[in-house]
């Protein structure tokens, strides 16, 4: 399989949907739209929409079933990156090889662009006409919870509080389950919900996402040490510099690599229960743990 070609095909469909959901506007509020679009179209991997689409497909659904949620989730992911880069948080100047949102548009507009992406996400999913409205309602609740205090924001708060103090492996796992894992899990579970998956299918997706989320985070930590600024589009070594606890700081690079392999194998095993339709989720897992950016 030409994995790059397969990914690019999917990215094209996702980008076209995002373009329709957030077109360029030439009115008196053009600047906020420009700021939102600047980060939304800055070259992200579209991992979360892709996972949602594939999880939905694995349970018998299609891209149309998840399109509004896939766009909403990518908007929420983008808002989290904009806010994470702000001076009050990571204070980063570069992301995906480009100036971060606040460097380009100023801090006030960057905060508002993040807020506006979050609001746009919920506007999109709550104003759509669905064939199965009860599935959509469930999916909206999953998305809200996963991005809030019981999910990504909760993880970010725990991460901030843990800076410059030694934490245990269990704490590290807990932080990343929330900070990184919650949106990855939401992608997979919402894919299942919108396809009308049964309990055992949702359970398989849940175990898959849980393990993939950790493997993905470990690779992120490894890349911060072994990657290059050119490939990553941001400075390397920033985790150590800011006193962050990572899988590499806690376990060392070799053990971190071994753990990543274990989690990705667990992920692949979980999803094999869904049969042939889940083949691309396995391919995606391999691709993500071998990525260089
Ligand atoms: C500020 C509300 C708020 C939350 C911040 C997600 C997050 C929480 C911060 C982002 C920083 C970070 C390194 C998070 C770990 C998850 C991660 C590896 C995000 C990057 O995701 P990719 O690689 O990004 O999918 P692209 O650029 O491909 O979209």
Describe the structure.
The chain is mainly α. Helix content is 73%, strand content 1%. It contains 16 helices and 2 strands. The protein has helices spanning 3-21, 30-40, 47-58, 63-85, 101-105, 107-126, 133-147, 152-162, 169-179, 181-195, 199-226, 229-232, 238-241, 247-251, 253-272, 279-289; strands at 94-95, 98-99. Strands 1-2 form a two-stranded antiparallel ribbon. A hairpin with a 2-residue loop joins strand 1 (94-95) and strand 2. Helix 4 (63-85) runs antiparallel to helix 6, helix 7 runs antiparallel to helix 10 and helix 8 (152-162) packs antiparallel against helix 9 (169-179). The protein is globular and about 50 Å long. The model has no long low-confidence stretch (mean pLDDT 95).
What attributes characterize this protein structure?
two-stranded antiparallel ribbon, 16 helices, 73% helix, globular, binds geranylgeranyl diphosphate
In a nutshell, what does this entry contain?
This protein has 293 residues and is mostly helical. It has helices at 3-21, 30-40, 47-58, 63-85, 101-105, 107-126, 133-147, 152-162, 169-179, 181-195, 199-226, 229-232, 238-241, 247-251, 253-272, 279-289, and strands spanning 94-95, 98-99. Helices cover 73% and strands 1% of the residues.
